[in-house]
Specification:
Bound molecules: thiamine diphosphate, magnesium ion
Shape: globular
Radius of gyration: 22 Å
Largest sheet: 5 strands, parallel
Number of domains: 2
CATH superfamily of the largest domain: Thiamin diphosphate (ThDP)-binding fold, Pyr/PP domains
Strand order of the largest sheet: 1-2-3-7-6
CATH architecture of the largest domain: 3-Layer(aba) Sandwich
Distance between the termini: 56 Å
């Protein structure tokens, strides 16, 4: 168990931290760009929901460093069993903003065919397993996948992310226990954003931290500054190397703050203490990384402006295209489960056709 909290940004003296971590200038740019893409995407999606154009959205505001820093430490073929607040991970693995916007609209180009809740992304080709609505279910699925990786000896590592509130679910304990017993190749990332909707972290655990919980299962816990992308990357890199070399799991507690509402269905001003958000805004993970990049001469105003303009256009174009795309065709409701439809579903399909013939297509089609 590491004592205290791991930080990298702001440390004085010695070699440049990113060089020590083996990160190139290209890597730094990619990390920063992904954080800004998530921020711009978030801001736009919230506006779209507020103006009634999409139904629901879960912002990642303030938590960009946690999930992007951790995922960057993985190989592209490693498995991810994600929390619902991690849109930067698919973006890092090459999923486009367009694909994600189609999902939020649930239209015919949505790869989940409008059957999933908005924001519940799922990308089979990049080993990004479907986001789960029931809290913590991804943790046991991830432990099972890590068990499979160990049996198959395929060299893959599993990352599963979840919130502080999710550690109160039985599935967290079951997953951690299985991983500890079998020394599985898995990294648990707890994004401690201080809140589980309106429940503060003080009511979530009697332990002195979340990281310390790993001790009970026989492996290491690391508490890291979750608004410091280089610190998260460092913790994740060490944990991933450890997992890949057969030395078992790690629990990373990334200490961060949810700077926006829990989701677009929430109003945090009703329960957060005055001044809390303002205090955390001073530790904004993007601003902190930007300052570091400025110091090492990777960031300048011109690049920032170009980045923001390009991303804003990319998001706007994606929205236009999603709004011009039809909803999924009704027949798709009957696809993907049975190779041959059973009699009762055939009857339902006929009934649907009859209703459409009689009343026409529902509004929006
Ligand atoms: C099993 C279960 N119980 C309750 C909920 C309702 N719920 C959705 S999100 C949430 C809070 C989760 O907090 P946390 O794990 O800290 O994640 P955060 O939203 O803060 O990122 C709750 C209680 C749920 N989705 N699943
Ligand atoms: Mg939380």
């Amino acid at each position: 168990m590491t004592k205290g909290m791991l930080t990298v940004l702001g440390k004085k003296g010695g070699k440049k931290p990113h060089e020590e971590l083996g990160l190139s200038v290209e890597d730094l740019k990619r990390l920063y760009e992904t954080m800004v893409r998530v921020r711009v995407f978030d801001e736009k999606m919230i506006k779209l929901q507020r103006s009634g154009r999409i139904g629901f959205y879960v912002p990642a505001l303030g938590q960009e460093a946690c999930h992007i820093g951790a995922a960057f430490a993985l190989d592209d073929s490693d498995w991810i069993f994600p929390h619902y607040r991690d849109p930067g991970i698919p973006l890092l693995r090459g999923i486009t903003i367009q694909e994600m916007v189609h999902q939020l609209y649930g239209n015919a180009a949505d790869n989940t065919k409008g059957r999933q809740m908005p924001n519940h992304f799922s990308y089979k080709d990049i080993n990004f397993v479907s986001i789960s609505s029931p809290l913590a279910t991804q943790i046991i699925q991830a432990a099972g996948a890590a068990y499979a990786a160990k049996i198959k000896k395929d060299g893959k590592v599993v990352l599963t992310s979840f919130g502080d509130g999710s550690t109160s679910e039985g599935d967290f304990h079951a997953g951690m226990n299985l991983a500890g017993v079998h020394a599985l190749p898995i990294v648990f990332l707890c994004e401690n954003n201080q809140w589980a909707i309106s429940v503060p972290v003080s009511l979530q655990t009697g332990s002195e931290s979340f990281a310390i919980k790993a001790q009970a299962y026989g492996f290491d816990g690391v508490k890291v500054d979750g608004n410091d992308i280089l610190a998260v990357y460092k913790a994740a890199k060490e944990s991933v190397e450890k997992a890949r070399s057969g030395r078992g799991p790690t629990l990373i507690e990334a200490v961060t703050y949810r700077m926006g509402p829990h989701s677009t269905s929430d109003d945090p001003t009703r329960y957060t203490p005055e001044g809390e958000l303002e205090a955390w805004k001073k530790k904004d993970p993007i601003e902190r990384f930007k300052e570091y990049l400025r110091q090492v001469k990777v960031w300048d105003e011109e690049w920032e402006n170009e980045l923001r303009t390009t991303i804003a256009k990319e998001v706007d174009d994606a929205v236009k295209k999603a709004e011009a795309t039809d909803p999924p065709a009704p027949d798709t409701l009957f696809e993907d489960v049975f190779a041959e439809l059973p009699a009762q579903l055939l009857a339902q399909k006929d009934e649907m056709k009859r209703l459409i013939d009689e009343y026409g297509m529902p509004e929006g089609h």
